[in-house]
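Hello Y.,

Per our agreement to keep a running log of every chain we model this quarter, I'm adding this entry. I've kept the format consistent with earlier entries: sequence first, then predicted structure.
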Amino acid sequence: MAGNGLPKEIRRRLYAFAQGVARPFTDSRRRGFIQNMIAGMTIAGHVHLSKVARAISRGDSRIHGVEKRLSRHLASEHWDMSPVGNELLQRSARMVTQDTLITADLTDLGKPYARKLEGLGRVHDGSDPQKRIIPGYVVFEAYVRVGKWQMFPLLFEPLKTYSGAPTSENAEISAFVLRIHEATEGQATWVLDRGFDRDELMLPWLKKSLAFVIRQRGDRHVLLADGRKLAVTDAAAELRPAAWPRRWP
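Predicted structure for the entry above:
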């Protein structure tokens, strides 16, 4: 790994982390591939195989061979990334306590020039002023907040409904949330944007005793414990304290 510019101790800890993530694979060659990809992408700061190969190679003469080996693993028809996802989920889930916050959202990954990527669907391009529909993915992502500034990934999965799978967005989101809810043993409070303000999501979660805070759209009414039905803005006004507590960092 000559010329990557990382101190020896950081390289050692990076490879130790990569070895832990690759541990579920029984094939030693596949474990080595996972370790090299994690270390290579981190060192190179890029996903191009040529740059990953350069980051983990000892000299320029071996880069082509390393790149071919990485490419061969990626092209394997027997490739399954689920052990990596499960390992990362379990690692992050162990950091969750009753007072932890879990944040989740949907994001679009536009691939306007892609044609043959696996599971490619049609999505709204959020960065396009005209909001055109282009090839891409809609991804569900969830993170656990640890300490003041650190976020650890729990789940990062594309929604299959956008590529034509016989399911729905609500069903996939609920499955992802309940998977994390089970892994964290029902602890933590979810913090979600107004895109999750849907009865199809909230009502099943309430039955599962899932704690969540969802930013409301503003057009919803709520039924209070005393039987009154109020607009959510009026209900929030009644709950407003005389003095707001210190804001979270």
